[in-house]
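## retry 2 of 3
previous attempt timed out at serialization; input unchanged, resubmitting
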Amino acid sequence: MKSWNRLGVFTLCAIASISVVGCSNGNTTPTTPSTYTIGGTISGLTAAGLSLQDNGGDTLTVSANATSFTFATKIASGGAYSVAVLTQPTGMNCSVTGATGTASANVTSVTIACAQAYAIGGSVFGLSGTGLVLQDNGSNNVTVSSTAKSYAFVFPGTVPSGGAPYSITVLTNPTGQECTVASPIGTARATVTNVNVSCTTVSGNAYTISGTIKGLKTSGVVLQDQAAINDDDLLPLNTNGAFSFVDPIASGGTYNVSVQSQPEGRYCAVNNGTGAPIANVTNVSVVCLGEWTWMGGSKAGGGYSGEPGVYGTLGTPSETNVPGARQQALTWVDASGKAWLFGGAGQDSTGTAYGLLNDLWKFDPTLGTTGEWTWMGGVNVETPSATFGTPGAVGTYGTLGIAVPSNDPGSREQVASWVDSSGALWMFGGEGNDAYGVTGELNDLWKFDPTLGTTGEWTWMGGSNSVGVPYGGQFGVYGTQGVAASTNIPGGRYGAVTWKDSSGNFWLFGGNGIDVTGSLGDLNDLWEYSPSTGYWTWMGGSSQVPGPYAGQPGVYGTLGTPDTANIPGGRQAEVSWTDASGNFWLFGGIGTDANGTNSAFLNDLWKFSPSTNEWTWMAGSSTAPNGAQGQPGVYGSQGTAAAGNTPGGRFSGVSWTDAAGNFWMFSGDGYDANGTIGDLNDLWEYTPSATGDTGQWTWMGGNSSIGSTQGIAGSYGTLGVIGNNAPGGRFGGAGWIDSTGELWLFGGQGYDSTGAQSANLNDLWKYQP
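## retry succeeded, writing output
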């Protein structure tokens, strides 16, 4: 047993030894790893100087007119390659396609495409420090070595048709030096070689110039700090926030920051831009604001009455059509985004008479170059009054509640309006002509549906078709406060303001009109109308004015505190907004202050909560100043919100709400910063507080002073071209917001491009916030 085991072990060892000896004497040769060449094709190479590089180390110089290339160093099977242009050929620019990959065979698919190039650059003087970086057009960077005598930004291809704009700036100064660029901005039409850079050593104390920019919505703004002759420090900016100029200002020097290039669609202004620094400057403020574009109509008023209308063919748009000059017209936007305009006081097609209008227009901004008008209804010639009233069309009421093509409201101005969920217009009152041609304060309710018939149809929905005596009106029927009734109806009035609540009900406040006793005055009654039931509800305010042509005084309470006893005083021609929470806001108008002063130009701001039925005085003054009829405006710095800012007292401005929920107001007749009354062209933004307390006003454009002519002339620029333009001072303009959030403004009474006199206008403007 033991012998067998020993033999087995010995035998196994011998077999293993034989096996090993047999392997070592075989004829098999070890395998050599495969390697592959890296190359490809070249097109368009006509100049010398091209150097290629593979994997950051293998360099290949390529001669002019070569059509192919192969690197000398091969790549092992499975190895990576990465081909790049190390040096561009003279006057050309080459790009690589298929530059990277893994070699599994000889590579011939890398493509080098070369094209004629152009360059923008110049000489470099005095450079000794490291770290100089130049930038073109705010994004393209070139690092310049400390020994360089020149630099260039190289671009592929030929110079584009019309040239290539350039703006060369110092992005980073070299260590211990500051550099400036001569002739830094231009348009290249060939290679540019004269944008020279000069660097000097910084000695002694030097201070940085910095600040903030806000309101920037597009790239393209370039700031400039002109520290001395031929020392223009340029700074392109693309975003809002902090900025700092590259070049510091030596002790004893001066700085002067200005806008060298404006961004498209914005106008940027500098505050705190000049001085002699004694420390680092951090308070330079740049504010970028929206701009106006003159889109149509006349820039010359044609006398007090204004330009006549060009009506064309009913229902047919034309680039030559334009409504006549007018003020106090009604505008709205339908469900398809088209703007509509109705009535006002102004000129018909003849240009021979000034009266009340009932013409209906539609404006389509997508037609033609700057949009086109279509005459959609009403008359184009005002009819002389047979009752000692104002020239204008007689109303055709038809049957209550029935739409027919022949229905037409009489001519009128300063109406109240709403747009329901279907895009139909509802219109109440105004001063105008009834069914008998008598002029007075109307209380008729109309609905216009643009989808009916070929040009839309009107329906008389309520109120009276008669004002009674000339310049009279129907009494208000108030009923019980807070209780809807079929017999309730507001009295005839004009200049009221309106809102629509989240349930689709219509609200109306104030205006100059007829109270429950038949007296005419500035009203402060609040009404709600339900389109579903057709009932009015008196919701607040007084049913009676204190006397003829007077108004109830306002009860202001405590600023910022709601109270059931609070109520704005009687007024007309105020402006209004609705916030994101469904609260109603109103500002100003002409009316009665807290002391009972009548016909005051008000600048108070109010908020009303329909859920609690409470008013809150939010800003502005509760009284008109002694010896004047309106508070002056406090403008502050343009583009900068402040708690102390407030517009001056005014009436008949234009208001709208932007997509962010901010309130905007333009123009009106009222008081400037100096307490002078006239036609204003100032633009304001109000930002409600997120916490519900008082917000802040910001002066966003226009003039803070109306000058010596009681109004600023319009700056029209070129038709259809955005720029640093501005409409002239005016009141009673008509406005609407398009689908992009831009404001459109039409007409009003005010100042044209000549500034000669306040006249009725028919100019059309667009404002980009």
